Automatic annotation (TrEMBL):
<keyword id="KW-0456">Lyase</keyword>
<feature type="binding site">
    <location>
        <position position="27"/>
    </location>
    <ligand>
        <name>Mg(2+) 2</name>
    </ligand>
</feature>
<comment type="similarity">
    <text>Belongs to the DHBP synthase family.</text>
</comment>
<keyword id="KW-0479">Metal-binding</keyword>
<keyword id="KW-0464">Manganese</keyword>
<dbReference type="GO" id="GO:0005829">
    <property type="term" value="C:cytosol"/>
</dbReference>
<dbReference type="GO" id="GO:0008686">
    <property type="term" value="F:3,4-dihydroxy-2-butanone-4-phosphate synthase activity"/>
</dbReference>
<dbReference type="GO" id="GO:0009231">
    <property type="term" value="P:riboflavin biosynthetic process"/>
</dbReference>
<keyword id="KW-0460">Magnesium</keyword>
<dbReference type="InterPro" id="IPR000422">
    <property type="entry name" value="DHBP_synthase_RibB"/>
</dbReference>
<comment type="subunit">
    <text>Homodimer.</text>
</comment>
<comment type="pathway">
    <text>Cofactor biosynthesis; riboflavin biosynthesis; 2-hydroxy-3-oxobutyl phosphate from D-ribulose 5-phosphate: step 1/1.</text>
</comment>
<comment type="similarity">
    <text>In the N-terminal section; belongs to the DHBP synthase family.</text>
</comment>
<feature type="site" description="Essential for catalytic activity">
    <location>
        <position position="124"/>
    </location>
</feature>
<comment type="function">
    <text>Catalyzes the conversion of D-ribulose 5-phosphate to formate and 3,4-dihydroxy-2-butanone 4-phosphate.</text>
</comment>
<dbReference type="GO" id="GO:0000287">
    <property type="term" value="F:magnesium ion binding"/>
</dbReference>
<feature type="binding site">
    <location>
        <position position="27"/>
    </location>
    <ligand>
        <name>Mg(2+) 1</name>
    </ligand>
</feature>
Length: 204
């Protein structure tokens, strides 16, 4: 099962979640991806209950700079160099972990008036800094989320969550297709997104 990039973007613009798979030679995993600007607290709750993975917020470098979000570690030894920053909560949250409070933190990351001092550190939202070149520079879910947000004509901020099976193992393509069918979700691959962006460059 694979939908077109255009179909995925249309759903993202409606605030829906999509599934994005990476290469079987990379992580061979699928993530739920949403565009933060069009998402809601229900999006976070869906990801937490159905995805079961870590909910992260991919952002463009410029937003990380504005909010003074520095790398979580100075020496990144992650096999895929995932660019985690220090985790955050918006200062007016209580525990920060409910779907509603996590979404409030995301909303405030989108707000132009928000300053770095408006967030407590550490917290329950995990920002990830995308490479400037997007999936053409790094074929990860972080870059895919930011690229898709831009294609959906929104702020370059996404919400992502890895998808696990009920038994705690990672869901692979066969299981991901069942999830997509059950919840009527579009499903694309990062490889598709790379091809789409390359064709856009040729057109421009």
């Amino acid at each position: 099962m694979s939908h077109s990039i255009e179909e995925a973007i249309a759903d993202l613009k409606m605030g829906k979640v999509i599934i994005v798979c990476d290469d079987e030679n990379r992580e061979n995993e699928g993530d739920f991806i949403a565009v933060a600007e069009y998402a809601s607290a229900e999006t976070i709750n869906f990801m937490a209950t159905v995805g079961r993975g870590l909910i992260c917020v991919p952002i463009e470098q410029s937003i990380a700079k504005k909010l003074d979000l520095h790398p979580m570690v100075t020496n990144n030894t992650d096999s895929h160099q995932t660019a985690f920053t220090v985790s955050i909560d918006y200062k007016e949250t209580t525990t920060g972990i409910s779907a509603f409070e996590r979404f409030l933190t995301v909303e405030k990351m989108l707000d132009d008036k928000t300053q770095a001092s408006d967030f407590n550190r550490p917290g329950h939202i995990f920002p990830l800094i995308a490479k400037d070149g997007g999936v053409l520079e790094r074929s990860g879910h972080t870059e895919a989320a930011v690229d898709l947000a831009k294609l959906a004509e929104a702020s370059p901020v996404g919400i992502i969550c890895e998808i696990m099976k009920e038994n705690g193992e990672m869901a692979r393509v066969a299981e991901l297709e069942k999830v997509a069918e059950k919840y009527d979700l579009k499903m694309i691959t990062i490889e598709q997104l790379i091809s789409y962006k390359q064709s856009q460059l040729l057109l421009n």
